[in-house]
Write a structure and sequence with these properties.
The chain is an alpha/beta fold and 283 residues long. The protein contains 6 helices and 17 strands.
């Protein structure tokens, strides 16, 4: 497992009975996490706790008055944190291990790198690539997330860097890029298990990931640097994602994919909480 252990503004304090106790800068939150199947109910006090509803969704219960949003930093990057109605905060801290990878491999390249960031959310990967010197096309189907990413870019002092922000469906965008002949040296995919397109259409990752990766192979440049895909979907183990890479991207390029779990250190236990997996193809 690759563990995101370089945070200072974030800590996973404890995990038990389906919940996480986390510190986000100066504030602590308790959020549900269905992967945590051990222990008894957390007794720790937090500034706010997310309560799931039997009808779906949920709401925050505040034990202390919190600002509507606040900022945290990872190294030189700055992120706006905001408790949302879907329990998320705008940052997936385990992804810091991948941000470090982007920084290292882009800085180590002897040329300018063009990156396509699909399902880009609030822009953690976009910021890391821009900060390392790459050009980035940032794409997400949700306009509010794209606006959030723009704000994170400004907060990080990267607004003058070469980035395009696009609100679109990933598959439709890739189809148009193939027709236009546009190419990218690196592609990042961070798809949710379930999603909605720009017109509200629903999709499941397992129904479309094969075709998405085949289209990604078509928009990679003649000398690609890397392709990375995150997976949070039950059944898509690291080995399964690795095999998927070889059966799609591997049809066009000679590749070797690595796939590992990624996770977060748990302060109370000295262990690491699994938070999905990442497959990386380095060309």
């Amino acid at each position: 497992m690759r563990v995101a252990e370089n945070w200072k503004d974030y800590e996973l304090l404890d995990v038990s009975s389906g919940e996480r106790h986390e510190r986000w800068g100066n504030y602590t939150l308790i959020r549900p996490d269905p992967t945590i199947m051990w222990g008894e109910e957390l007794t720790a006090k937090a500034d706010a706790k997310y309560l799931r509803s039997d009808k779906g969704g949920g709401e925050w219960e505040y034990h202390k008055k919190l600002p509507e949003h606040w900022n945290i930093k990872y190294k030189s990057l700055t992120f706006k944190v905001k408790p949302t109605g879907f329990k998320h905060t705008g940052v997936f801290p385990e992804q810091a291990v991948n941000w470090d990878f982007f920084d290292e491999i882009i800085r180590g390249s002897s040329r300018e790198i063009s990156v396509l960031n699909l399902f880009a959310y609030t822009g953690g990967a976009t910021l890391a690539c821009l900060n390392a010197g790459a050009r980035v096309c940032h794409l997400d189907a949700v306009k509010s997330m794209v606006e959030w990413a723009k704000e994170n870019t400004r907060l990080s002092g990267l607004a003058d860097k070469p980035v395009r922000f696009i609100t679109d469906d990933a598959a439709k965008f890739l189809g148009r890029e193939i027709k236009r002949g546009n190419k990218y040296d690196a592609i990042i995919l961070d798809p949710p298990s379930y999603g909605r397109g720009t017109n509200g259409e629903t999709w499941k990752l397992e129904d479309c990931i094969n075709s998405l990766l085949l289209m990604c192979a078509e928009v990679l440049s003649d000398k690609p640097l890397f392709l990375l895909m995150n997976s949070y979907t039950t059944g898509l183990s690291p080995s399964a994602v690795k095999y998927l890479m070889h059966m799609t991207v591997g049809k066009k390029y000679k590749i070797y994919a690595n796939a590992d779990e990624i996770g977060l250190p748990v302060q109370s236990a000295g262990l690491a909480l699994p938070c999905g997996n990442t497959a990386i193809v380095r060309f």
